[in-house]
Amino acid sequence: MSKISKIMEDAIAKGQKALSEYESKKVLNAYGVNTVPEFIIETPEEAKKRASEIGCPVVLKLCAPEITHKSEMDLIEINLKNDTDIEEAFVRLSEKQKKVSGDFLLQKMVKGKREYVLGMTRDPSFGPCVMFGMGGIYTEMLKDVVFRVAPLKMRDTLEMMDEIYARKTLDAVRGMDAVDREVLGENLIALGTIALEHDEIMEIDVNPVIISEGKPVAVDALVVLR
Question: CA geometry: angle at 126 spanning 205 and 157, to 5°?
Answer without folding.
Answer: 55
